[in-house]
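FAQ: What does a ligand-bound record look like?

Like this one, built around shikimate-3-phosphate:
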Amino acid sequence: MSFIQSSDNSITFVVLPSQSLLGHIRVPGDKSISHRSIMMGALAEGKTSITGFLEGEDTLATLKAFRELGVTIKGPENSKVEISGVGIHGLQAPSKPIYLGNSGTSMRILAGLFSGQSFDTTLIGDISLSKRPMKRVCDPLSKMGAVIETTDKGTPPLYIYGNRTLNGMNYDMSIASAQVKSSLLFAGLYAKGKTCITEPAPTRDHTEKMLAGFGYPVEKKDNCICIIGGGKLHSTEIDIPADISSAAFFMVGAAISQESEVILEHIGINPTRTGIINILKLMGAQIEVEELGTVGGELVGTIYVRSSQLHGIDIPKHLVPLAIDEFPALFIAAACAKGTTTLSGAEELRVKESDRIQVMADGLNTLGIKAQPTPDGIIIEGGKIKGGSVHSHGDHRCAMSFSMAALASQDTITVNDCANVATSFPGFLELASNAGLAIHTI
Ligand code: S3P
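The answer part, i.e. the structure of the complex:
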């Protein structure tokens, strides 16, 4: 029996050369925060109400996983979810392997959470997820006492054994990864004593912030985050801001096109996520951010972006983890910029939903732009986008990035394998076409 389920990647986007992007845009809820809201809501005592939940395939996979573990979850309906939390020790054994689709975040974080249960779990995913490296979480979790089996290559399925005693540990992460950090923090909830994780560079800190929001003490000093196992999470209300990673496509689209102006509303602008804004500003983009305050510990604001004259830059290395999901979109900005843009220190892009360096380089070359992949980055010469037929390789962010390139293209861009856009951005087609992108599917 094969544990790998394939997704239907038969959707093709056809995007005609488009003039401008205009208007007020509210993109769906933040994916990272949506995943964590389900996980913590399920482990909390009492009812947690969530608004702004992302109804995308990835976050729905997390939601379904907890239903399979006996948690009652109402919704999602109009982005609202209500979870009847079962407490840290209240999850029940699932009756079958848990399918997590395309979602690396679900699999890596749940590996930590499930390591602390009294029952065994098997985690499986689609073709892309089944190729993604899991040793980065399994190795440190095994240091805590977890027992997890992977394939010989360190890829899914994951067989996680229950009834193990976890012990807190001090762990220096070698990769800047919020998924690894979060996985270890969730395991730390079940561990004896203190779990301290040191990051090589700051990464998104939604787990730490949300744990505190659920009343769980978290210590943070410089780049070290510690929790002590054995505590409780208390139910709460969560208002999830719109996802800056989804807004990124519109930021780039507006910056590269003529007479454009977009106003992106209620965006999560947590400083661990705003690398895209800093990088676009360094490239000369006209972007303004209006901070509106903090909602549930997360900073929220309005982002204004206008047509811009972009120029190439060497992307500062410290911004890489803070813009890790936005590079496909940033490569389109670089393709439209005057001069050369160089990215290095971003080898992680090779193990995302696709090898984003290769997939974007191949597509840009097809579109008439010189893009030279390097082991840990890319060198892009700005130029004129011609149009053509490119492949997203089932990668949602590559698909949406190539679509936005039509705002600076001479001819039609056809993007193949776009079904996975639904993993993170349901409604992308409608929002993008309402804003002015001449996009349809075949
Ligand atoms: C995420 C962390 C990042 C990011 C992913 C979401 C998270 O992955 O690319 O889309 O929610 O923790 P890494 O931890 O692999 O950098």
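Follow-up question: can I read anything off the structure? Yes, for example: The longest strand covers residues 286-295.
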